[in-house]
User: What shape does this take?
Amino acid sequence: MIPSYYEFLNSVKILSGKLALDNIPHELSSLGAKRPIILTNDILVEIGLVKTAVDALKGSDIVIGAVYGSIPIDSSVKVVNEAAGVYRDKNCDSIIAIGGGSVIDTAKGVSVVITENDDNLMKYAGAEILKKRRAMPFIVIPTTAGTGSEVTMVAVIADPDRNVKMEFLSYNLLPDVAVLDPRMTRSLPARASASTGMDALSHAVEAYTGIQKNPLSDAYAFAAIKLTREYLLRVVENGNDEEARLAMANASLMAGAAFSNSMVGIVHAIGHACGGVAHVAHGDAMTILLPHGMEYNLDAVPGYYSDLLLPLAGPEVYAATPSGERAARSVSAVRELITLLNSRCGLPTRLRDVGVQEKDFERIAKTAINDGAVVMNPRAIALEDVLTVLRKAY
Amino acid sequence: MAEKRYEDIVPGQKPLKTMLARAVFWFLGRGFQAAAALDSKVREETAGWPEQFTMVMKIEPRGPVMVMGKRKGEFVYLGSKEVEAHLAVSFKSIDAALKVLLGLSGIDQSFAEHRFSMKGDIIAYGMPLTRCLYRVEAYLFPPFIARRILKKMPEKERGMLRIYLKTLFNL
Ligand SMILES: [Fe+2]
Assistant: This one.
C-alpha cells in the first residue's frame, strides 16, 4: 500500500552506543554552541545520571551554564517559563535535555519560548504553526526507553491555571541530536523498563495501523517491534545487559520516529485520558490498553495486523499461522508478552489494578474523544466505544 | 556574447478556484450554522464553547476566509473577513482546500496528509469542531459522497432538505 500523499521527516542525528555521550562536545561545537543548559529532574541528578553525562564532557571546552532539575512528571507552562528564565539569566546558548518524556517535552517548550522570545507558550499551541527556526541547538539524552520523544515533533504541556493540556505539533520541535548511551538507561528498574518498553511497542503498533501510515513510518515501526520482541524481556531480566539496553533504546527511538510521522490511535487516546483523569502511569496504561485497542481496530484494518505478526511473534509463528488467522494471532502475541512481563515484574493487566474506578469511566471517555489521536485511528471512535473498551480493560 | 538575463517569475493567481472556494466557504459556514440550530449533537458540542468564541478557516496565504463563532448563545456564520480567533485552520494550498470543501477528501484524511495547520487548542476546540464537521458534512453532501469521506456515517436527525432550506434561505 502506498498512500496517495504523505509527509515524513526525521531530521534528528542519532548517536547510538558506547561512548555516545563523549561525542556531545563535538556535536555542540559543530552546531556553534558551547554553553548548554541541562534540563532534567532531581531524581536523575540524585542517582548520578546527570553526573555521568557531565563527566563525559570532561576535557572539552563546554561550560554547563546551569542544571535546571525541577521538572516534574507533568510538564507545565510554569516550569517551561521558569527554565527559560534560567536559560536567559545564565546566558546559555543551547539545550541538553536529560530524562524521559516530561523532561523532553518541557525542553521543547523552553526552545519555543526562547525562540519566539515570548513567555506566553500557549499562543503557540496547535499543529504546524511555528514559523521561526529554533534559535538554539537542542540535544536530547533519553533515560527511559519508551517515549521516543527525542525524535518526535510532538509536545504536550499543561496549563495548571486553566487545568488543561495543550498539544504542540511542529517539525521545529525536533531536536538536533539524540544520544542513546547504554549508561543512561542502565539504572532503570525492571518494572519501569517493562512499562516504558510497552509504551514503545504501542507507538509502533499504532503507527503501523493508523490512517497516516506511510512506507517510511512502517519501516521504523516494523524494526521497532522486532527489537522489542528480541530484547524487552532481556532488559527486564538483567538491567546490566548493555546490548539489550541499547537495543531497547533504539526500539523506542524508531517507534518514536514512526509515530511522529504517522501518529497514534485509540490506545493513546484512552491512555492519555486515564493518565489525566485517574493518574495512571503512561506505560501502565499502554500495557493494559494495547490488546484491547488492537481488538477494537482488528476488523477495520485486518491486513495491517496480519503484517505485524511477523515482527511480533517471529518468522516461525508467522509462517505456521494461516493468513486468515494472523491478525487475531497478533493480538494474542501481545497478550502473551504482557502475561510474561506480568509474571516477571508485576506489570498490571487491568485498569482496576492501577486505581481506575468505574465511576471515572464517563470522564475518561469524554477526555479520550478530545484527544487528537482519535482522528488518526483507523476506526471511528465515539464516546460509547471508549466506554466499551474501558469495561473490557477493567 | 549576449548576457543571459534572469527575470522574476510570478506564478500568478488561481482566480476561478478562489471564487469557488469563497462560494463554498459561504455555503459551509451557513450550513454549519444551520446544523448548529437544528442538530442536537452539533448544538451540544458548540454549547461547551465560551460566548464570543471565534474560529477562522482560511486558505494560505491571503484567503478566502470563513469566520464562525458563538454570539448570544448561538453558533453562527460571521462572514469572510479575517479576525483574531481562538482556533484558526489554515489550508496550505487552495487545491487541497477545495478537495476537502467539495467532499473529495475527508477531514481525517486531510489532517493525515498535513494539508492544513491548526492554531489554538486542539483538545478543547479542534476535536469538538472536527466532530461537528463530520455531521455537517453528512448533512450537506449527498450520502454517496459522505460515506466515502467519513469513517462512520452519523445518524442524521434532520432531512437534507430541511438543512438546505435553513442554509440557503434561513428558513
Ligand atoms: Fe506513548
